[in-house]
## 1
Amino acid sequence: MSRILAPLGWLNQYLKQSTTIYMVLVASLIGLLGGYAAVAFRLLIQHLQQTLWNSPELPSEHYSLLEWLTTLDWYWIVSIPTGGGLIVGFLVYYGAPEAKGHGVPEVMQAVAVAHGRIRARVVAIKALASSICIASGGSVGREGPIVQIGSAMGSSCGQMLGLGPRRMRTLVGCGAAAGVAATFNAPVAGALFAVEVILGDFGVPQFSPIVISSVVATVVSRHFLGDFPAFEIPLYSMHHPAELLAYGVLGLLAGLVAIGFTRSVHSAEGMGERWKLFPPLKTMLGGLMIGIIALKVPEIMGVGYEAMNEALDGGYEALMFLVMLIAVKVLAVSITLGTGGSGGIFAPSLFLGAMLGGAVGVIVQQYFPGAAPPGAYALVGMGAMVASTTHAPITAIMILFELTTDYKIILPLMISSIIGTLVMSRLHGDSIYTIKLRGRGIKIRQGQDVNLLRSIKVEEVLRREPITVLPSERLSSMLQRLFRGAETSLYVVDENEVYHGVVALNALRPILEDADSMSNLLVAADTANADWPTVTTSETLDKVLQSLDAGYRDVMPVVDGDRLVGVVHLEDVLERYRMELFKNQMVDGLAESMPAADNRRDRHRVGDFVMAEIEVPQGLVGRTMKEMSVRQRYGLNVLLVRTEIAPGELSAPQPPEPDYCASTGDRFVVFGPERSVDRMQNS
């Protein structure tokens, strides 16, 4: 087998040298796989739906599931979601726990902190679990799962090809774009979703392969499913410029509903995590509750496209019915995801937007009969709700534009989407994706690279000799010390080195005009700011950077209990950030340029440092990267890790994960002083 694969490995290494051509080829492959996966996932849902509900053996557009449900006995409507929930629970619990929920936060987490690495088994488990959940009536969407499935495919391809983290992240974006594009028949929106939500980077090197992948996936989808939009959307337009006010109100309401929806889902997921019950039983009970609700409101079951099309056609004219659908849908989605179901929140967001827009349209029609029909407001509401919940207004606008291909709807769509996003971001801060990540300590919106600082402690950049003053020191003396030195702050400590606060030069400026009369009256204790935030040596630099940025400060005291032990400066944090960023970029290049079979032990000198590949010392075997503390113990950075997959055969180099556990025969690529390399190698 190795003789057969050797030429392919050589070809892969050769093509890697041509970045543009290589990424075009790989992106096309992922687009092809993502397109086929989206088509297969959609057909699987349709087949399971027909099987579970014993509905007509016809494509879904030829019959109405909502009408079919009215012909079934009540126990079928209750038992099928219950049984489906039980099966989904077992699949997720024993197959891949990360397949639980709506999937997109897991992809964002993989991009931000795991170098784009996603387990390959997620493809099968997520596809099967989500299709059963949706087909059996779970109140979730199919877009989130296909994003996770496509992203897992992209990540798996990158891992098999031995690509570094930078390219791996791009391929994850390619998979996400392929999934969205094939699902909505919207290639531009698919590409924008990947760069706006998943990667947060519109750079050309990342954007170009994503566009290619999105286009290829759309071609595959159109070949099998036809060139049709995801929804049956009549052509609408704005009848009068004054209607923009109504669309603005719709955007405001969309932002408020998005906040309630986001908090409801997040709270339900938190309650589900704390609920001490065997996970498959949780999903079974969730399915039972959905079935009971569906006895009265069947519109909330599944993806909900039929109800959305009805709203777009203006079929729902009762205001209270539309408001009731909004409330019950929020409850149903929260139950499904909170009890461990598998599915997305993109389609539920569209559902809520359609019903909210329809309700606003009914009110407008009641008082202004010449205005656009309720269906127009339902259409704009879909875009506004998606923009608000995801914090991705560009993607939302482009999806709705590609679905309608009508430029006349763009103005109200832009107004509602932007207002909704502003309301949501201003009053809530997190999107429905990032709120889940924030609970895990991952801050996406501050920039993905800020996570580079999460593993670095304050003590590594600590300055241990701050300028201190006693609480009784006079203002005149403090001013002289400030003007003579480069520091802009003094730190008040007593004789026992107990910290009392900070005297900042900016805080003294208001009294400098009358310094002559005040210099003998004011002392350090009177001018010290005791509320100045502090950190401890064990905290990480990402939290320090957030605190410094929030208060527009450039320095922060470091304390141990009530004692001052030093200060940390913004310039030192930024310098360390630049060093870590450079190291990561260097790691990307190394991981892609070093073939898996390379067992060289030579050293490469970089200034006063060397980069060397050494075997893991026996004293570190059996320990995780966190337990090794290589940086603290030896003064070295571990750039790459090769694991021994067979006697004398090493894997492709990969950046080390925090939970990586060293085994005999593994090798590290380290960077640092040569004497430190020798010390580690001989330990």
Note: The mean pLDDT is 80.
## 2
Amino acid sequence: MQPITLHSFDGGIHPQENKHQSTQRAIVALPLPAQLIVPVGQHIGAPADVIVSIGDTVLKGQDIAHPKGFVSAAIHAPTSGKVVAIEQRELPHSSGLEGTCVIIDSDGQDQWLEEIANGSQGINDYLDADNDVLIKRIRDCGITGMGGAGFPTSVKMAVKGKQIDTLVINAAECEPYITSDDMLMRERALEAIRGIQILMKLTAADNCLIGIEDNKPEAIKAMEDALHKVHGEHHITVVTIPTKYPSGGEKQLIKILTGKEVPSGGIPASIGIVCQNIGTCEAIYRAIAEGKPLISRITTITGDSVEQPQNVEVLIGTPVKHLLEFAGFKQEKSLFQKLLGTESKPRIIMGGPMMGFTLSNDELPILKSSNCVLAPSQKELPANDIASECIRCGLCTEACPADLLPQQLYWFSKAGELDKAEQHNIADCIECGACSYVCPSQIPLVQYYRHTKGSIKTERAAQDKSNRSKVRFEARQDRLDREAAEKEAKRQARAAAAEKAQAAKKAAAAKAAEEAAKNGDSPATEASAKPEPVDLEKLQKQLSAAQAGLKKSMDKVAEIKAGEAEAAESEKLEVFEKAVATRRDKVKLLAQQVAEAKKAMPPVKKEVSREDIEKKLRAQQDRIEKSQQRLQLAQEQGLDTLPALQKGLDKQMQKLKELEADLAQFDKAGV
């Protein structure tokens, strides 16, 4: 293979490394905790669906939550025991959010599932196995990225239809204090290399580049030795890169090793590259060759507040407190005050000093992506002073490895101008903390960016929900309009049939009268004929319904003509105008039938009381008020219905005067 030409990325810093403290001891297994808190959402994507119940007994490696959807990951029991609770618990996250957790009380036996314990789940000839089988095993074993992001590995390996040229293995581990990947490569290099071979098979990459910073000579030698053992040096290369923070960023490492840049908003696969963390490679080998799910990981426990800084293999879900006690945590050394006058409390950081975050308490669990627990002393890592005003020095811009404008993003984030922050590519911020590190005003820039990213995500989710609601509303309106049109068509068909039947009946009656006259019979007179009974109340209800439908159609036409309707509705103007004409004919017909029915009915004299007049007067006043509101709205919008509304209001005013005159008659009579 040709020699690798290294490149560089803009920005970056050189903070004090502080790595030697935790590399003096070999990796040890952490003693079994009494209780494990296992979140079902430890990865990017949808949280897994819990498949166990409270009171269930589980074995080590048993499924307790299945992946939900494509971008998700399975969750397994880290040890044997009993499920005592399934509830919402605070998660180790910078925002302090909560999530569903399965609480397991350990039985102390640490007993594996039988099929895992006897090795029957392992795939011996994995380099000859079908890719779909291997990807399914990776998904079933819950493997996710162990470098921090937690992206489901099975999704990242689904590269069908994409030409992958290079597999990049991120073993840079650039953040200060963290040495979990360093120690893994020193002690488990062969397993990591075999995991890389599996990834090369899945991606069909031509070559693989393992990027390791030059401050890890023991890890570099161990990886090279393991590479020769499997005779993979012809396609896999261990590349030593200069120590510079954040060279372990995915885009930055790709730039160093290949000279290629991942486009803004894009992914490495778009330029023919797949990137995986070295810890993920070792977990993939365990899952494929041994059938073991991801239930533990190597985590660095370090800082001046612990007596024995080291790397331990810890079960997922182990409370941080258990890890601290094992390393000899001295709480008095970690006490600090955020502000003058506030109560001192121990500071525990999950992750490194650059990208990590302070935990609210030590009962929070270790996750699949938890590579470090840092317990610094106040002297070792002093708390920031109160932030001062930005002096526009530009140091943050020089330090940014993503070629962003941190100062501008700060102003936009502070002002809540989310659209401008998006336009300045805030999504490309890797939250490395380099800008905050060099800021002389001690402004917590990364915290502003994280908050803005969360706000953008929330706003986008709300907009998506609104769009979905709009689609549902429009579909419902289309359905209602369609049903109304169908109902109207049926009604017209019935009216036509009734009219035809009535005409036929009249014709038959006329013919019968003519026949009777010819035969000398006395024709039936109108007085002797019995008129058909008419249901006036039913006709009036039909008239009211028809008038309401007509008004609705007229309002819709007016709204479209005023330009206030949606584009989809504007295209239906002709349909609504036809509906107006049809409903107007229906109203006229029903009004005529009501009038005829009223004429045919014998007059009913009803004694009208003063209370009746007053009631009618109040109702008429309410109608006038509503009509005036509709008229005012029509005037403001310049609608075509303005003359009709004015005419209707005049009639109502005349009716009001008549009622007032009737009431005056009662006053004169002294009633």
Note: The first strand starts at residue 28 and ends at 29.
## 3
Amino acid sequence: MAEALDGGRAAVDTGGTFTDFVVADPAGWRAFKIPSTPADPARAVLQGLSELTNLTDLVHGSTVATNAVLEGKTARTALVTTRGFRDLLFLGRQARPSLYDLDQTRSPRLAPDRLCFEVAERLAADGQVLRELDTAGLNRILSHLRSRKAEAVAVCFLFSFLRNRHEKAAGKILAASGLPVSLSSDVLPQQREYERAVATLLNASLTPVMKGYLQRLRQGLGKTSLRIMQSSGGSIQPGHAARFPIHTVLSGPAGGLVGGTWAARALGLSRVITFDMGGTSTDVAAFEGKPDLTTEARLLDRPLSIPVLDIHTVGAGGGSIARQDPGGALRVGPISAGAEPGPACYGRGQLPTVTDAHLVLGWIDPDRMAGGRVRASRDAALEAVSRLASRLNLSPLKLAEGIVQVAEASMTGAIWRITCERGRDPRQFGLISFGGAGPLHACSLAEQLRIPQVIIPPVPGAFSAFGMLQSDTVIHSRKAVLRRGGCREGDLIRAAADLGKRNRREIGSIGSALLLEEPELQIRYRGQSYELTIPGLDLRQCAASFHLAHQQLYGHSDPNREIEVVSVGLRSSLPSRAAGSHPVPAGSGKASDARIGDRRIWWNGWKQAAYLERDRLPAGCRIKGPAILVEETSTCLIPPGRTGQVDPSGCIVIT
């Protein structure tokens, strides 16, 4: 049982298979995992928290919003828009995901046709009022919302990002329905009406889901303070998360990237790739100095234009199911066994997964999974793998090896996409590997991509939760200005000042000397459709930075071409308390201090591997492969020919 000291802080990350906990106190931090409860994620969270005492602060990364969207379990939402634009969602954008596919299927519309309403009002492209809001028309819409069983309302008027008077008035009238109302000028106050409408509808449809979840969570927390992780890498107050749940849809992977930043700083690395392999998926990112933000992410086939950390995800995890495709080839993922029924080794599922392959190959000790909290059977894993192996005319060992190789092909492709395809050489990066299954595959991926260094951080199986514990409280807001190259700098400064006041109200830190404010401009060449985000407010300096960034990203720039400032942004952050240092034991400097025994593993044939307790490895000691390192949250494989060394930070550096 984990138990926090007085004043303990914790973070919890709800995953598809396990819910991870990290607890910090003056002595350092500890971690543990329990199986997730997909039907009610709050149940697993509260079950784990019941093992802690004297908890004062909790940071929570949740998949509630993500799963609601992916599973189509969002609230039934109405769209209210400017007359003539009710088909905005149907028309979308001209670009198609598969240009030559004549039989494409699209995700269901976020608002069904009978819940798309028009109201007479109109603003010009400069924000001037062309037609006042028809309040009588809004009252007629109000009468239809209940009869058509709407559960939430999204309001998206043309050019409301320049002047939100009409949306604010409409929101007050529609609030009389008793339904939650989201305004596009609050959710995404910037140009591109389709992306703005999608973001507002997503936010509105998630509001009842997130509000109910947070209420259940708060009831079980008592007086413990709560922050919610968001997709941009910072945490927010639960009230803000309830109003703007769209900012939480990728919160789990964001925590891992924040943790990766901590590990990079601890080891003095400037270029790193983060590799997070969990039970359902693998998330990868690459950055130099600090993680990149993007506003061009997608959720299913819908644009997600809010600021999110630039993370690429593939459907390959420990629970990914292996199967034979119609052509007779072996496929692994993206379908996952999840937490229920889970991999075959857990005794509830029948289909072989990557985790079952790990057990067949001897890489995992079935008695030590999740610190012994989960009962696993190598016999059950072998039986599931053998059934598929007989259909493919392979031995169980060869199939288990093939399952691992196919899964690694997906993960290698993901890393290739965020490095080589973006002009980055992976040979110049270090690979920070975490997640429950990541440390088993990290060295193999590094070998394939010729990455010279692999880093296994402390508590790797709960490292996303650890990153959440390190996260600052952050509000990231934007205001459209649509000024061209000759715009006045004073207008930008005033816009940033307005954003600063709004952000300080949301964070609740008015007057705090610790608050850090980082302004930015979104700039493009006149005539372009998309912008680059440049830090700062100084127009001359930002213009020079824009030309340089454009050259680096696209291979060309034109300093003589006119630029446009599209919007002003401000990131306001309040630093969190650091989680302290991980206790690394002092010792003789030899791995033998932590030796449990030997394990027989398959790695191009059977090998005898040293079996070590990671928490007993002293700082400075070297571990020669083959070796298996076991701990509460994960298992690490150091293959033959590789050597690991324990850093004083608690990270293991494998070269």
Note: Confidence is low (pLDDT under 50) at residues 1-7.
